[in-house]
Amino acid sequence: MRQIPDILKPVDTLTTDLPMWFTRQPGYLRLSRNEVITIGAVRFRDRDGVVWNCPAGFPTDGMSYPILVRLLFDRFARRTRRPATTHDFRYAMNDYIRNWPDTRRKADEGLLDGLRLEEWFWARTDYIAVRLGGQGVYDRQSREAAMIQWLDLCDEGYEAIEEYIQEMIEQYGEAAIF
């Protein structure tokens, strides 16, 4: 387990407020059928006033829908990118960061709040599907090479992350961006 890199530290605004996005939907760069990295950062203020910052380059599998739901819904749809990225980020940091200041319940609340901000009509359906599809993810310790590499880049800072993204775009091509 590692310490929290400065650029990943959540900021407690010491006030409760309405959830809010501070960034646009991130672009994705497809690395494989089931994994992408974010091209842009994602920043979200949760209902407790905590601002979560997920820098660009974060590896995500999108919405963790059950297999049958994936036939109906795109796990990488634009309307779910910010909530999915923030949720994956908050879950993953529990596996990699010592004393990560978050809980599963709070991360799931943030997912629902983020989905409501994006598209109220589908929020509850998306939330329930992710909770069903990702039930065991939180308890399983992840040790993915892409995540470890991203965390190493976060230790180095934003410039290293930007260089990495450019290298990935060169490797996978502009056509892999969506």
What's this entry about, in short?
The chain has one domain (6-176).
Description:
By secondary structure, the chain is of the alpha+beta class. Helix content is 43%, strand content 12%. The protein contains six helices and seven strands.
| Tally of DSSP β-strands | 7
- Which word captures the global form? globular
* Count of individual domains: 1
Number of helices: 6
Span between termini:
33 Å
Radius of gyration over all CA atoms, rounded = 15 Å
Give the proportion of residues in helices: 40-55%
Strand order of the largest sheet: 1-6-5-2
Descriptive key words:
178 residues; alpha+beta; four-stranded antiparallel beta sheet; three-stranded antiparallel beta sheet; 6 helices; globular
Task: Write the SSE topology.
Blueprint: E1 11-12, E2 20-21, E3 28-30, E4 36-38, E5 42-45, E6 50-54, E7 59-60, H1 67-70, H2 81-96, H3 104-118, H4 120-133, H5 145-156, H6 158-172
Antiparallel strand pairs: 1-6, 2-5, 3-4, 4-7, 5-6
Helix pairs in contact: 2-3, 3-4, 5-6
